[in-house]
Amino acid sequence: MHIRPEHLERHTLSVAVANEPGILARIAGLFAGRGYNIESLTVAETAEDANESRITVVTSGPAPVIEQIIAQLDRLPPVRRVVDLTAQGPHVERELALVKVRGLGDQRIEALRLAEVYRARVVDATTSSFVFEVTGGTEKIAKFLELMAQVGLVEVARTGVAAITRGHDTN
Amino acid sequence: MSSERSGADILIETLTDLGVEVVFGYPGGAVLPIYDALFRQAEQPNAIRHILVRQEGGAAHAAEGYARSTGKCGVVLVTSGPGATNAVTGIADALMDSIPMLVITGQVPTSLIGSDAFQECDTIGITRHCTKHNYLVKNPADLEATVREAFRIATEGRPGPVLIDLPKDVQVASALSRPASPARAYAPQVEPDMSLIETAVEMLAAAERPVLYTGGGIINSGPAASAALRELAALTGAPVTSTLMGLGALPASSPLWLGMLGMHGTYEANHAMNRADLILALGARFDDRVTGRLDAFAPSARKVHVDIDRSSINKIVRADVGIVGDVGLAIEAMVRLWKERGYDQPDLAPWHAQVEGWRAKRCLDFPLSPTEIMPQLAVQRLYQATAHLDPIITTEVGQHQMWAAQHFGFENPNKWLTSGGLGTMGYGLPAAIGAQIGNPDALVIDIAGEASIQMNIQELATASQYELPVKIFILNNEYMGMVRQWQDLTYQGRHSHSYSDSLPDFVKLAEAYGWTGLRIEKPDELDDGIAAMLAAKGPVIVDCRVAKLANCFPMIPSGAAHTEMILQANEVSGEMDDEARALV
Fold this sequence. Notes:
The complex is a heterodimer. Chain A has helices spanning 23-33, 63-74, 85-88, 105-117, 138-148, and strands at residues 9-18, 40-45, 52-61, 79-84, 91-102, 121-126, 129-136, 153-158, 162-165.
């Protein structure tokens, strides 16, 4: 007997939740308990309403599973709204990475040059290292890390994706 | 409440105000203030009655039985640590079967939370995913609002268990009670979308081979939903089948009744589902026990799915029309619209004839034995002896549960209490106790197996203490029968640890607890034994010795389609491939 693979879709969900204790564990646990994927998850209080937080989840699964994830999130009492940004259309996705690179001489110059191409800022420097701050879509960050790996990358911290719809309407 | 009150008093007063009449519980260190508040209110009018169980798991199942048989919310009160963890199985059971339940757990004082204190456990963490919602209350001023919100969440929308964890210092501290903030109001969708109801009614009017597939949601919606279902069936002439949880929504005596569907459902119900051109799923969730092999499930039917829980729709089976809302309101709306449109009852004669053809298979027939009591016969005779008394039947889990579902006819909702989703052995006795508390004049019978009954046998004492005349009818075949049946079907009859060795003498056990104990051993003793059980005043255990190796048929083997039913034991191959073995 073999386990059959399925076609996966990647979706970014924006989940507005009541800001109560344990809400993150509740959301993360729902994904774990029902076997859904989390590619990234970010959470923070939002300014619009002091009692509300926004959780941005990037998940992947077959289309019916994505539909089920949204319905399962939506029925949790503290969840106020679930928006499938991927299905809804134009939206902006960004994440931030802090990238530590060690090196001397030409390697160091090359790292700085590449960072400029990617509009990464230097936020810390020593004579043998840099910390770059880079923001962008997931693909851009991935590409930047791939290049940095060749010029002395030693450590990375990433925020995961934050996302919002384009245009003047809100969710 | 204008003056400052202790958290414990606020809790009891709020529960009283919400109309709670009964609490099932067990005291302990972390709930002593609440037990003292219960003690102090005992002489007041509308006092809450406390039922002392013998283990916290019993409290949770008793609350389930109370809730399922009365339509009210079951309330559980247990202490921290082991009190909470013992209740977890019943909480998970209530979540799976959508039973309204409020669980109050004591917790160590807030200053000790997280310190591995005596009888501390992370109750909120442990129950987060087996409750509909849970709360840790850290301020007595928030308690009343939390209890009211918890009660609403437990009882509204798709019902389920809600837990409030209450540290001991919060029970002791005083506060003025604060009303709830309206921003947090829980508001599930109950009114169905009328345009979708129209579509469903038009599909129903045009269908040539419709089936109404009903579930526990109809029971949860209340007796009006069952009444509406009966009217819809009569108007449309559509045959009706039901899940395990929905039995009693349509009377078993109705000519439109197909019997239960699914793994141990009837031949006619499963074949009707397979050949239907329209399936109207009403408060049912397409459980794997119902669908059999998914890619062969109801291949030629369009599906309308009505459920109050949006996540049930399209979860397992794609619906052509998904209607979110209360199933009772949805059926009433369909009935109203059907009449407004002046539809006649469609001519379903060819469809009914086809159904009669399947019915003629007489799939529930079983071979009789002159020397042994066949378990199916025992259930049939019990049904015939008690039907006029409209009894409440609870069950444990296993073969006896399926035989009860197949051979006991239910005419009304709220009379059939069984652990469907979680399949919890040990459910039946405490559930019967809860049902008897909620229905003091009803005949309550736990149809049990000799293995299951031992899982919460300590609750015999609870029935003794409160003089509850519950009856336990044990179909004793000296096996964990359903396990043995699967070993027969799947593992060439290797009976690995499924024999019920070292059984107690159930008659003496009954007497030890102050119950009446009876034994039935031969077919010709069956009717007299049942009559003796019914004639006894108090609680009775009947140890009914049945054929040891009888298996429960008909059966859809795991991984098979509705049309691949096994009707009799001689059709069993005794082997399965790995794909089938991997299914539960």
